[in-house]
């Protein structure tokens, strides 16, 4: 069933403005070209991201798309398009930086997916995003609505070469359960910036998984807020940066409702000269958010000399009436004790190294819940290790 109209929903939740969260706005004039001195841009190599900061439309040529989108959805999923200003487009996501604003203004028709109320999807909804040309821009907006008490998994799979701007707007309504997986397995010449914004309603559950292995530069914002008590969010990520690659993940969990929960766990590995990862996590616990539970962690394995991992956890607490809150960050080489344990039992040092890294990643990968995706990602980690 295909639809082009959508029901009206409530306006976006109250936004936060600070040095970590510049004023969100659809107006491009509110998002000037960054200089690199801004807190939210200081880790990003601006020269390499410059093509994504220019005001350009999607550059298709004679029927050949800059990026091709192929949807595979089980029966019962409704799909269609939303013009700018047509609800529910723009009711959850307000652009937080220039790339997000450019993605919205440069996309005439957003792709819209709706999981009907009370529906449980036995098979994942899959969207293949295939870049065709590293010199052409693609501006994309996706809106996903999980109606009350529905259950589904959505997988976005990015491959090929592109200059990709992409906003993903996710509305998880009362009692719904939604898992969203975004795989960035781009070719080495791709630059990709995006904003993923989710709103989690009362007693709803949302799991977000970011997997970043490919691309020259990938810079993604993942933000979650709540619309009522009892909402839960899990944000997981794995990334593997090779020589010269820049992978940047920025996360914000806004506990703006009481009795909500969140868990953030991102893990990365780096190898090769100038491999660079950036992880910035921020959790805000507002005054009204009594009884919440939250924890965020980021772990990085530096496999070779010349690689660099920046990790910045933040926790802002406006009320002491909480069940628990914390954060942690670690960056280092292999666990020497693990390596000693394995080699002392006759395991070859190279194989021991592989086992340690696989164990580091597999704990997250197995939480996705889609067997073929998990097997592919395990194989991808194996391939990355073969480059060391």
TrEMBL record:
SUPFAM superfamilies the record matches: Stabilizer of iron transporter SufD
InterPro entries assigned to the protein according to its UniProt record, in alphabetical order: Fe-S_cluster_assembly_SufBD, SUF_FeS_clus_asmbl_SufBD_core, SUF_FeS_clus_asmbl_SufBD_sf, SUF_FeS_clus_asmbl_SufD
Domain SUF system FeS cluster assembly SufBD core: 138-360
Endpoints of the signal sequence: none
Domain of life assignment: Bacteria
Family under the similarity heading: Belongs to the iron-sulfur cluster assembly SufBD family.
Name under which the protein is recorded: Fe-S cluster assembly protein SufD
Primary gene name: sufD
